[in-house]
Specification:
The complex is a heterodimer of chains A (638) and B (146). Chain A is built from 20 helices and 22 strands. With 638 residues, chain A is an alpha+beta fold. Chain A has five domains: 129 residues, Up-down Bundle (Four Helix Bundle (Hemerythrin (Met), subunit A)), CATH 1.20.120.160; 78 residues, Alpha-Beta Plaits, CATH 3.30.70; 61 residues; 180 residues, Histidine kinase-like ATPase, C-terminal domain (Heat Shock Protein 90, 2-Layer Sandwich); 143 residues, CheA-289, Domain 4 (OB fold (Dihydrolipoamide Acetyltransferase, E2P), Beta Barrel). The longest helix of chain A has 30 residues. The radius of gyration of chain B is 15 Å and the shape is globular. In chain B, the strands form two sheets. A six-stranded mixed beta sheet of chain B has the order 8-1-2-11-10-9, with no helix packed on it. Chain B has a five-stranded mixed beta sheet with strand order 3-6-7-5-4. Chain B is mainly beta and 146 residues long. Chain B starts with a strand and ends with a helix. Chain B has a single domain, classed as OB fold (Dihydrolipoamide Acetyltransferase, E2P). Classes of the chains: A alpha+beta (638), B mainly beta (146).
Chain lengths: 638, 146
């Protein structure tokens, strides 16, 4: 019986954590609902059900205080749901506080501490949702930023009229903020662009732009939350929360190794099968051969499947940040708005886990040192509410994480003084951004004059830098005194799945990450002209310099009447990479080529197409950049 | 300290590496060429889910390359956190060599490979060249950076 209970209680904690994660996310989304003419019913429903389920499971393990807290929260949601209570910011605060106490009761039980008494929080919540102070007239809806999905499909006709991606981007920037931009391949093989836009767009604009190949569609209210796109993948939450299993990463590694061994054995099997062909009756041989093939296919799927278990969306790095920001800002008496953007490109969970603490530290620093008090902001003519922007983007080669605030920036003079006090060598004269970063990352450095609660928790900038170093990453600072500071972290992708184009040059296959490819074009060999040693072709009314990937890769390729090219870069920076044939468009597993012997600019990693043979992932951007530089040098000399 | 060595041949000479330095030995079908890699690096191969560079020891030691055949093997060695593959002509022996059996290399051994040699062991009629892995990879890494 005891064993049974032990197992059961662990399942309970796992399930509770899943409910809590849905609750955290939904409460933040709910906050954005305040003041809207109508609430997101699906969101309220999901929250209600999460509290309800949590109440149920807490009751089953006899954790009465958790059950009671969940019950009160459920009641509050019920009141909102049936319209007895109108949601205000105070109401959301009460719900968040309640959820946080709920979390505490569970954490206490898990840590085998004495049960927490939630009576205070229950009373507050009760008052908030039955008392009158929470009932507000439906506020006049503030001019909320509507979210739009804009699809732009370039065409020769549009380009002829001067409408290209850059123009469209500029136009959209004029109307609002581009939250996300993704190139997509349309069913007929052309390239189109999706822009997600936050801003007000009038019906007239929608109509006027339609004739320019720009299709606008409003994005549903459910996604109208800044934390939206990145966090979506967790959404399956409520329906399947009972069906999650937690897996130790080490066990997955073990599985991966076993699969690796199977792949090797399979390849030996294929060899022996081939050798036995001459000794076997054809029918027998065919049967064995087919079975060996079937094993190979299954093995490939098994491998991909295990690989995918490890992958999480890159945006998950920020999972908890809105909560942290909220708490820190409240403690510091500041007003901060957090904007998340992230992709759902999936990267290894290991990387996400390792990045949580460094990002958390940078965010803490932003709020405690960067963001000014409300009064100071008003005096400086800034909006009272500060903005902290977090974005994460994974391309084929790297993950780039940006942490930016619009606070006071970093005071270089103060950094210099502090550094001298700490005995660090500081040169005279103004400090550049790199030096500032260097100094604040030195062990023992702290700019906080008084040890406040927000910073100085033993995870300094030096630890941030150390962690990045271990992961092979870099950090850069862009400091704009008076306007804010931005930290940019760049990490190599050790393991990721990304969309790529597979192409062939001569006998060599290789992959190019789709994110780097702006367009796929086809040219007649006879249209390619030589100009000062460089090859160019006329494309969309401009001269497009070409790079033959056969010469980059050092392979021979017979002349062909038609060639395909990946167009990389835009405007005058555009370069076409010539290949013989584009073979496929598919998801690939990216593996780093980290050893110094094979770390070359033109290659960002390797993958395989399921047959165990390595194919290179080319760093198209670097190849294009090198080509442009060569062309410029040639021009300068000429 | 264990005295087991993995033996392999490159251009008719027998070489040995301490067995604990060798992660595994694989058959090798195809090496994917990497542009701009050092000349003695044939390219990359997948080994148990990892991408490792393949150093052609013939090229490294100044011999002529030969096409891969059924006897060709890739020795995946680990050193200082790196995994590197060594392409050899053949590898099929595992042998204990007591420290007393390994002598300092004499003047008889010259040529490119001399700089990577830890010692020479004679077993019966055969001469076996014991390689110093750190030096072999260390030098190559340095050369790659240069």
């Amino acid at each position: 019986m005891t064993d049974f209970l032990d197992t059961f209680i662990n399942d309970y904690f796992a399930e509770a954590e899943e409910h809590l994660s849905v609750i955290r996310r939904d409460l933040l989304a709910l906050e954005k609902n305040v003041g809207q003419p109508s609430l997101d019913a699906a969101l309220i429903e999901e929250l209600f059900r999460s509290f309800h389920s949590l109440k149920g499971v807490a009751g089953m393990v006899d954790h009465r205080e958790t059950e009671a807290m969940a019950h009160e929260l459920e009641q509050a949601l019920r009141a909102i749901r049936v319209g007895d209570s109108i949601l205000t910011l105070t109401g959301v605060d009460a719900l968040m506080k309640g959820a946080s106490v709920l979390e505490d009761t569970i954490a206490a039980r898990r840590g085998e501490q004495p049960p927490r008494d939630p009576a205070g929080a229950i009373a507050e919540l009760h008052a908030a949702f039955t008392g009158n102070d929470n009932v507000a007239p439906p506020a006049a809806a503030p001019a909320s930023a509507a979210n739009w999905l804009c699809t732009f499909t370039p065409s020769p006709e549009l380009v002829g009229r001067g409408i290209n991606v850059d123009k469209v981007r500029a136009r959209l920037r004029g109307a609002g903020e581009i939250v996300r931009a993704t190139p997509v391949v349309t069913p007929d093989g052309a390239i189109a662009f999706h822009f997600e836009l936050q801003g007000g767009i009038t019906a007239e604009q929608v109509q006027a732009w339609a004739s320019d190949g720009l299709v606008l569609a409003p994005i549903k209210a459910r996604e109208d939350q800044t934390a939206g796109p990145a966090l979506e993948p967790e959404r399956s939450g409520i329906l399947s929360s009972g069906h999650f299993a937690r897996v130790d990463l080490a066990r997955l590694d073990e599985l991966m190794r076993m699969i690796g061994n199977l792949v090797i054995l399979r390849s030996r099997l294929t060899d022996s099968v081939k050798r036995s062909e001459v000794h076997l009756p054809p029918a027998e041989y065919r049967a064995i051969h087919e079975n060996a093939d079937a094993i190979e296919r299954e093995l490939r799927e098994l491998r991909d499947g295990v690989m995918r278990v490890r992958l999480v969306p890159v945006g998950d790095i920020f999972r908890r940040m809105p909560f942290v920001v909220r708490d820190l800002a409240r403690e510091a008496g500041k007003s901060v708005h957090v904007v998340l953007s992230g992709q759902d490109t999936k990267i290894d969970k290991f990387l996400v886990e390792r990045m949580m603490d460094p990002v958390l530290h940078l965010v803490r620093n932003s709020i405690s040192h960067g963001v000014e008090s409300t009064a100071d902001r008003r005096a400086a003519g800034k909006p009272e509410m500060a903005t902290v922007r977090l974005s994460a983007v994974a391309s084929g080669e790297t993950v780039v994480i940006d942490i930016a605030d619009d606070g006071r920036g970093i005071d270089a003079g103060r950094v210099a003084t502090r550094a001298r006090q700490a005995g660090l060598p500081v040169t005279d004269g103004p400090l550049d951004d790199a030096t500032i970063l260097e100094l604040v990352s030195a062990p023992g450095f702290s700019t906080s004059d008084t040890t406040d609660r927000v910073s100085g928790r033993g995870f300094g900038m030096n630890v941030v830098r150390q962690t990045l170093h271990e992961l092979g990453g870099t950090i850069r600072l862009h400091n704009d005194p008076g306007q804010g500071a931005r930290f940019t972290i760049e990490l190599p992708l050790t393991l990721a799945i990304t969309a790529a184009m597979i192409a062939r040059v001569g006998t060599e296959m290789f992959a190019v990450p789709q994110a780097a490819v702006r367009e796929v074009a086809e040219f007649e060999s006879e249209d390619i002209r030589s100009l000062q040693g460089a090859e160019i072709v006329e494309h969309r009314g401009a001269a497009l310099p070409l790079v033959r990937l056969s010469s980059v890769l050092g392979v021979d390729t017979p002349p062909a009447p038609r060639l395909h090219a990946f167009v990389v870069g835009t405007g005058s920076a555009a370069v076409g990479l010539l290949v013989d044939r584009i073979v496929a468009h598919r998801e690939i597993v990216v593996r780093a080529t980290a050893d110094p012997l094979i770390r070359v600019d033109a290659v960002s990693g390797a993958t395989d197409l399921g047959d165990g043979k390595a194919i290179l992932i080319l760093n198209a951007t670097a190849i294009a950049r090198a080509a442009r530089e060569r062309a410029e040098t040639a021009r300068t000399i000429a | 300290m264990n005295d087991n060595y993995i033996l392999f041949t490159v251009a008719g000479t027998s070489y040995a590496l301490p067995s604990q330095a060798v992660a595994h030995v694989e058959m090798v079908e195809q090496v994917t060429r990497v542009p701009d890699a050092p000349p003695y690096v044939d390219g990359v191969v997948f080994s148990r889910g990892q991408v490792v560079p393949a150093i052609n020891l013939r090229a490294r030691f100044g011999f002529e390359r030969v096409p891969l055949d059924v006897a060709s093997r890739l020795l995946v060695v680990s050193s200082q956190g790196r995994s590197v593959g060594l392409l050899v002509d053949a590898c099929r022996e595992f042998l204990p060599l007591p420290p007393a059996a390994i002598h300092p290399p004499g003047d008889a051994l010259a040529g490119v490979s001399a700089q990577y040699i830890d010692g020479v062991a004679s077993v019966g009629e055969r001469l076996i060249v014991v390689l110093g892995l750190e030096r072999l990879l260390g030098t190559t890494a340095h050369a790659a950076g240069a």
